[in-house]
Design goal:
The chain is of the alpha/beta class. The chain has helices at about 1-5, 10-70, 85-90, 110-115, 155-165, 195-205, 245-255; strands at about 75-80, 100-105, 120, 130-135, 140, 145, 165-170, 175-180, 190, 210-215, 230-235, 260, 265, 270-275, 280-285. The strands form three sheets. It has a seven-stranded mixed β-sheet with strand order 3-2-1-4-7-14-15, sandwiched between helices. A four-stranded mixed β-sheet has the order 8-5-6-13, with helices on one face. α3 links the parallel β1 and β2 (about 100-105). α2 (about 10-70) packs across α3 (about 85-90). The longest helix is centred in the first third of the chain and has 61 residues, at about 10-70. It binds ribose-5-phosphate.
Length: about 280
């Protein structure tokens, strides 16, 4: 009976249909899988390309800044913090007179960069003035005011910048927005005395900012502690016109317990911006 059923043309037609449907289904599934894999790989390639571009522009900016500004009479050099300054330290470490140079760091990372590049480490206690200092920035406006402190190093960075006869910013094209708070939307970093954080949060809110203590998560439960044992508060004031940055900075500085702000107002003489097309723009005030 079963054998007779199997021999029926209708049964054969049915079997052929089942086979074809499952074949079509498998092919469809395979094509969809390939498409999604391809999309993921293209996205990864695109991201990698973008990361390479940013890295190249950082290096370009840093090398140009050192090549054009470090003079033979510059013996005491400030080395800032962050990922762009890595290339500054590298370039300074390639100078033929490097044994005559003393480098002043702006924090722990910066100290390591100086040591790793075979440069001599100095301190502000030994050298009250610095011939030239190079540092990165989180954002730069049309007057070369900057937001700094994304890596929580702003206090020592400002000490070094303030002691330098020449202060040069190095950054990639994403930082050059013309107005502070445009692309750096996390807020201006403020270094505050731990005991004062709650009072300062209240004062910043009254000033119109959205402030919060920077968390150390996921690496550390609790707040980020700076190299100087303080807290960082990030306060978003939205976009601040270049002409208004000083006034806002003065108001924040007047709050007792604020050690320093990440607004670097009128400190930089030049900014070297590495562009995506492989060129470097030099901004001057
Ligand atoms: O505290 C960190 C410093 O202000 C850095 O210079 C700033 O965050 C820029 O860093 P990067 O060169 O990694 O963008």
């Amino acid at each position: 009976m079963i054998l007779q059923l199997l021999k029926l043309p209708a049964t054969k037609r049915f079997a052929r249909k089942v086979l074809k449907t499952s074949f079509d289904y498998s092919v469809n599934f395979f094509v969809k899988y390939l498409k999604s894999e391809l999309k993921t790989e293209l996205l990864q390639l695109e991201r990698q390309k973008m990361a390479d571009l940013i890295e190249k522009s950082k290096k370009l900016a840093a090398y140009s800044a050192v090549d054009e500004n470090l003079k033979p009479n510059h013996k005491v050099i400030g080395i800032g913090s962050g990922s762009t300054v890595v290339y500054v330290a590298e370039r300074v470490g390639q100078q033929s007179n490097k044994s005559e140079l003393v480098c002043i760091p702006t924090g722990f990372q910066s100290k390591q960069l100086i040591i790793d590049n075979g440069l001599k480490l100095g301190s502000l206690e030994e050298f009250a003035s610095i011939d030239i200092a190079f540092d990165g920035a989180d954002e730069v406006d049309s007057q070369l005011n900057c937001i700094k402190g994304g890596g929580a190093c702003l206090l020592q960075e400002k000490l070094v910048a303030d002691s330098a006869d020449n202060f040069i910013i190095v950054a990639d094209y994403r930082k050059n927005t013309g107005i502070l708070g445009k692309s750096w939307t996390k807020g201006v970093p403020l270094e505050v005395v731990p005991a004062a954080y709650n009072k300062i949060l209240k004062q910043l809110t009254e000033l119109g900012g959205k402030a919060q203590v920077r968390s150390g998560l996921p690496a550390k439960a609790g707040p980020v502690i700076t190299d100087n044992g303080n807290f960082i508060i990030d306060c978003d004031f939205s976009q601040v016109e270049a002409s208004k940055v000083k006034e806002l900075n003065d108001k924040i500085k007047a709050m007792v317990g604020v050690v320093e702000t990440g607004y670097f107002v009128g400190m930089a003489q030049k900014a070297y911006i590495g562009n995506a097309d492989g060129t470097v723009s030099t901004l001057k005030v």
